[in-house]
Each structure stands twice: as C-alpha cells, then as structure tokens.
C-alpha cells in the first residue's frame, strides 16, 4: 500500500461493549472483552471503542483499566459528561474520549448530544480532557448548529450519529444519507475531524464509507452479532473489506 493510500485509509474503530453484555448475563469472566479487543486488532481494527456507562451495564471499570494497559492501538472511551467519568478518563488517559448523551432507561444511545443546548455545561469537560492531552470527540446528529457548537467548544473531532440512516429505507434513508454527506463536508470545512457511527452493518456501511471527508467509522453491535455465526475476526475482516472497497 502506498503512503498516499495509508493516509487516505478510512479507520475502523471496533466497539466491544456487547462482548461485555454477554459476559455480564452470567456474571462471570467469559467472554472477555479485552480478549475480543486483541482479536479485533488482529482482524484489522485501527482502534477499540468502549462505552463505560454510569450504570455499568456492559463495560466495567476493570475492563477500561485492562484495555489501557494492554492495547497496541488507540482506545476511544465513550463517556457521559459527568464528574465521575471525567475522573476516570483523567486517571487512565485514553487516546480519545467521545462524549455521548446517556439516559438510564435507554437500550442504546438514542441520538446525538445536544452540544448547542448544553454548550456551557460541556465546556468544562472538553477543556479538562483537552488539557490532559486526550483527543475530545462529540457524538452529534448531522446538523450544522451542532457542528458549529463543537467548534465553539474547542472539540477537534465530531462523530456523526448514523443510527437514523440505518433504521430507514427507501427515499427517507437516501435523504438522511445526504444529511450525513452535507454535515461531513460542512464539518470538515470548519476544521473538524469527521467520524461516524451507530447501527452500521454490511448493508449500510458502503455509502457512509464512501464519504471522503470521514476519517473513521465506529462499529460494534452488528459485528458482535455476526461473530456468533462467523467468528469475530471473519466478521471484522468483511467489514474492513467493504469499507476499503467503498473508499477506493
């Protein structure tokens, strides 16, 4: 692969949360999300994402400590904007922290962070993480106002929420995809590093991966589900192939 190809490569961050979900169903040590992270890297993941929720429903504090110690690729810690999560992030100093909205009753993250409406509250967390040398990302909907708020807050990265696009079909899906394209272009024009993720599958990843302004996709639940049938390395390898083809 040429140097230009390496620089243009769309990175894949693999989210291992739901390996921990399966483990926690029995309250035992197996399957180990840290082991899954190692397999993901071997299969072509450029980074590992883990969401330490306030209710600890999947990833645990011990998982974050272990991942911080053993990973050979960047760790992206997804976290709510709380003092507890800030303290944990500052203790472990992951490569990146993605600030996400979080509701106790939700099954999964339901939408993007309201960076514009919560600007004053978020400022403290973005500043503290940035001062610690942690790359700050905001998980937002593909919306110009939210992108402008990210710039105002000083967050260098935004991750666009692709969940609605993945849930739709037909023309509504095409319309949402165009929103993601437009937001990617606009965010990049503002100087933001643009990422995307949530709900992406083999069927939905290619049009998103083809957006040239995007630098990274974060994918988890679908890959863990596919691993049941084909194994984690095979599932990640296929996602890697589809992303590379779409970007090429």
Summarize the structure in words.
With 248 residues, the chain is α/β, with parallel strands linked by helices. It is 51% helix and 17% strand. It has helices spanning 3-8, 17-26, 33-43, 61-70, 83-92, 119-131, 144-153, 163-167, 170-189, 205-209, 221-230, 232-247; strands spanning 11-15, 47-51, 75-79, 96-99, 135-140, 157-161, 193-197, 214-219. Strands 1-2-3-4-5-6-7-8 form an 8-stranded parallel β-barrel, surrounded by 8 helices. Strand 3, helix 5 (83-92) and strand 4 form a beta-alpha-beta unit. Helix 3 (33-43) crosses helix 12 (232-247). It starts with a helix and ends with a helix. The model has no long low-confidence stretch (mean pLDDT 93).
Write the layout of secondary structure elements.
Elements: H1 3-8, E1 11-15, H2 17-26, H3 33-43, E2 47-51, H4 61-70, E3 75-79, H5 83-92, E4 96-99, H6 119-131, E5 135-140, H7 144-153, E6 157-161, H8 163-167, H9 170-189, E7 193-197, H10 205-209, E8 214-219, H11 221-230, H12 232-247
Parallel strand pairs: 1-2, 1-8, 2-3, 3-4, 4-5, 5-6, 6-7, 7-8
């Amino acid at each position: 692969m040429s140097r230009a190809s390496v620089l243009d490569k769309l990175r894949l961050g693999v989210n291992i949360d739901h390996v921990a979900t399966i483990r926690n169903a029995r309250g035992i040590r197996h399957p180990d999300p840290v082991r899954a992270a190692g397999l993901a890297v071997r299969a072509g993941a450029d980074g590992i994402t883990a969401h330490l929720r306030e209710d600890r429903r999947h990833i645990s504090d011990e998982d974050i400590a272990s991942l911080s110690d053993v990973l050979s690729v960047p760790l992206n810690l997804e976290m709510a904007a709380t003092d507890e999560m800030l303290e944990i992030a500052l203790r472990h100093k992951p490569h990146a922290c993605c600030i996400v909205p979080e509701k106790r009753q939700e099954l999964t993250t339901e939408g993007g962070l309201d960076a514009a409406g919560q600007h004053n509250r978020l400022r403290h967390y973005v500043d503290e993480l940035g001062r610690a040398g942690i790359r700050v990302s905001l998980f937002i909907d593909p919306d110009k106002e939210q992108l402008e708020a990210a710039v105002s807050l000083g967050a260098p990265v935004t991750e666009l929420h692709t969940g609605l696009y993945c849930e739709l079909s037909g023309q509504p899906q095409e319309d949402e995809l165009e929103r993601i394209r437009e937001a990617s272009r606009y965010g990049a024009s503002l100087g933001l590093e643009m990422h995307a993720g949530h709900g992406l599958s083999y069927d939905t990843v290619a049009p998103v991966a083809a957006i040239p302004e995007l630098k990274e996709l974060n994918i988890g639940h679908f890959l863990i589900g596919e691993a049941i049938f084909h194994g984690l390395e095979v599932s990640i390898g296929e996602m890697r192939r589809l992303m590379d083809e779409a970007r090429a």
